[in-house]
Amino acid sequence: MRMKRAWIIGCLLLAVIACQGCKKQQEEPESTLLYEDEIEDSDNYIVVGFAQVGSESDWRLANTQSFRDTFREDKGYYLLFEDGQQKQENQIKAIRNFILQEVDYIILDPIVETGWDAVLQEAKVAGIPVILSDRLVEVEDSSLYTCWVGSDFEEEGRIAGRWLKAYLEEEGRADEEIRIVTLQGTLDSSAQIGRTVGFDKILRQQENWTMLDRGSGDFTLTKGREVMESFLDLYDDIDVVVCENDNMAFGAIEAIRAAGKTCGPSGEIIMISIDGTRAALDAMAEGEIHMVMECNPLLGPMVEEIIQRLERGEEVERVQYVEEQYFDASMDLERIMESRTY
Length: 342
Ligand code: AHR
Description:
Layout: H1 2-18, H2 20-23, E1 46-52, H3 58-70, E2 77-83, H4 88-100, E3 105-108, H5 117-125, E4 130-133, E5 147-150, H6 153-170, E6 178-184, H7 190-203, E7 209-216, H8 221-234, E8 240-243, H9 246-258, E9 270-275, H10 278-285, E10 291-294, H11 300-311, E11 319-321, E12 326-328, H12 333-338
Helix pairs in contact: 4-5, 6-7, 8-9
Bound molecules: alpha-L-arabinofuranose.
Alpha-L-arabinofuranose is lined by residues 56-57, 59-60, 134-135, 191, 219, 245, 274-275, 295.
């Protein structure tokens, strides 16, 4: 297969060279020949195409870095990286580009769960294994992807809910009316679905908890702030804000401050976040966040291990969860920060 790939790339390169004269007037092509410089050596690399969601959050940047650090040329990989800019259509285009270039493996971090059947069928027909990372897809035919590596999003939501219950008990507020709002991630993404479902499972067991409202902040600071501003306009009695990622929590904190309110252990509003990036632990150390449930972005090495097994013709586990823990303001944050890389 790698021989055929080199031949196709050679033809594409000739076509690109032949078109140089007429290309000046045209816009850049949407599908670029991404590894033309390495053409002569392409058979010596394992070529991996990574269709990433975007760069919407600190978590995402750490996740991208993990793949860049793992799939390095000196380790025998050639990584084709495509940033989907939080649009499914861009990710689909990237996958088609990878198929055209006959990569050896496709890694897909799907922005949403639905709408992948057709393009994954094309990858299957081309004989290219697809490894899902971080988020999942919902497809009719489960053989359209080889395996999935990521977080137990539902458990993340449950842990956040259980933590809130224990905290309210410690604070002597177990029987108080507790009013909650949630800043949700990108709707229909596995991270949003799982975290919402997980937290809801705990919420339903507490008669005195009310979910006042939920809104999607699309996992970004700006939209998180906008949604929080609208909640603060609508409700003046919010006790708890659950943020389905750190960047939305940063936006929510800005909105709370701008409204003249406070959050964190010595403030009025209980602030819960998910991701556990350094910036969130800093905000916790500064007294603005109560609890952060970790979502581990360091998935590159786990995906590499899968690729190595597939290269040796070995079976791989269909589902692999990454290890995670939670942090709260009562912990020794300085010590925790020392060992964190993102
Ligand atoms: O899918 C993982 C989520 O996506 C992370 O919580 C979030 O920060 C990212 O954008």
